[in-house]
Amino acid sequence: MKKILLAFLVFVSALAHADMNMVVSGPGGWIGVVAPEFAKALGEPIQFEIIQGGRDLLAGNKWEEKFKNDNNYMWFSNGGQAEGYLVEDVKYDFKNYEPILAQNQTIVVGYNKHIDPYNTMIKFAAGSGMNPDAMAITMMVCGPLPKMKDYLECYKKHITYVKGMTQPEQALSYQRGELNAIRQNPVDYNATFLPLELNQTWFSAGLLDLKTGKVMPDPNYPVGVRSFPEAYKAKWGKEPSGEFYDAWLLVKNYRDVLQKVIWVNKGNPNKARLIAAAHKLVNDKEAQKRIAEKIGTYPWWVGDEVTKAQQALEKQLTMKALNDLVWWTNEAYEIKASLKPEIVKKAK
Fold first, then answer.
1. 103 forms bridges with which residues in the sheet?
2. CB under 8 Å to 281, separation ≥6 — which residues?
3. pLDDT tens digits along 322-340
4. Residues forming a β-bridge with 97
5. N or C terminus: which one in the chain shows less Cβ crowding within 10 Å?
């Protein structure tokens, strides 16, 4: 992680006179790996506007308020912002922008192998984008239950959601045994948690299959690790289902599909050359090799392919699932969530 962050910061500092700009909520991770390769494919540097805070929602809101109408700006969205779109009064709206490049990714969840996660209080750090993973952990620990309220009761008995920790603090707390479960994107999980002696990979959230709308296994990482539905079935003997699962599936898919997307404003005159650069990057074998070494080999989407992925998400956006998700966010996490029926109408 330190190497990726250092490379990203060096890359940013070297691009003081960039022609294109990108709004991001923080350095490192996926964008720290992909942005330099995208700049090479584009044939010009990219300057980064780093806007941190507000569980990453601030960056999305600032993009909408200040930068989206500037044709020399792009926005890189993440999973926390996708979740915020569903349950909070944010100012940005993914339907109002043009997608350039995305990668269909997932999240990996691990636990301290010295505990039995099914008979131990799970201590898991809260943070941007982590709420869906707390839901998945709840289902894994609690098993089949009929109603949302049943899962809430089980969650309160078996999950401790630790708020206010930075990512470095989470890593240290996990290594010290203060936290006994962790989640991260493949980049950070690979670098920070996979090498730890105490770590046991639990499950991958899995990827959205655009053809079926279901969750498919991670195609390459970690090797041999089950997707959440597979891990759940292995533990409980049946496929996950029900209203709590549907609420999780909605937010998980929104988060994962929209967590690695580069956007521009509609009508941006730079769109054609940015799309061309995205295709060049996707088809550059050497660049893909360098990216895969840090991230893994995940499906890429360019331009209209991202729009098709958005349409697949919208088919899952029902009022019932959204209402249940808002209820859970309020009751379980005590995050003020708002029911937004207008986004369901927009999806139809």
1. 300
2. 34, 37, 38, 40, 41, 101, 287, 288
3. 999 999 999 999 989 999 9
4. 265
5. C
What single DSSP character describes residue 179? -
Residue 68's contacts (CB-CB under 8 Å, 6 or more residues apart) are 75, 96, 97, 265
222 upstream amide cis, omega within 30 of 0: yes
Q: How many angstroms separate the CA atoms of 26 and 183, rounded? A: 18
d(CA 49, CA 25): 8
Query: Which band of pLDDT confidence, cut at 50, 70 and 90, is reported for residue 222?
Result: low
- CA–CA dist 26, 213 (Å, integer): 30
Check which CATH number belongs to the domain holding 237 and give it. Answer: 3.40.190
The token duo for 125 is: 């750090």
**Cα–Cα distance between 25 and 33 in angstroms, integer?**
15
Q: Strand 181-184 and strand 261-265: pairing?
A: unpaired
Q: How many CA atoms lie within 13 A of 240 on its CB side?
A: 27
Report yes or no: 93 and 85 within 8 Å, Cβ to Cβ.
Answer: yes
Q: Is the pTM of this model over 0.85?
A: yes
Residue 87 lies in a domain: yes
| Secondary structure percentages of the chain, helix, strand, coil, to 5 | 50, 15, 35
Mean pLDDT score across all residues of the chain: 90
Length of the chain, in residues: 348
pLDDT single digits (tens) 129-160: 789 999 999 999 999 999 999 999 999 999 99
Which of 229, 254, 279 terminates a domain? The answer is 254
Last residue of a domain, one of 224, 254, 284: 254
Question: Minimum mean pLDDT among 23-27, 113-117, 272-276: which range?
Answer: 23-27
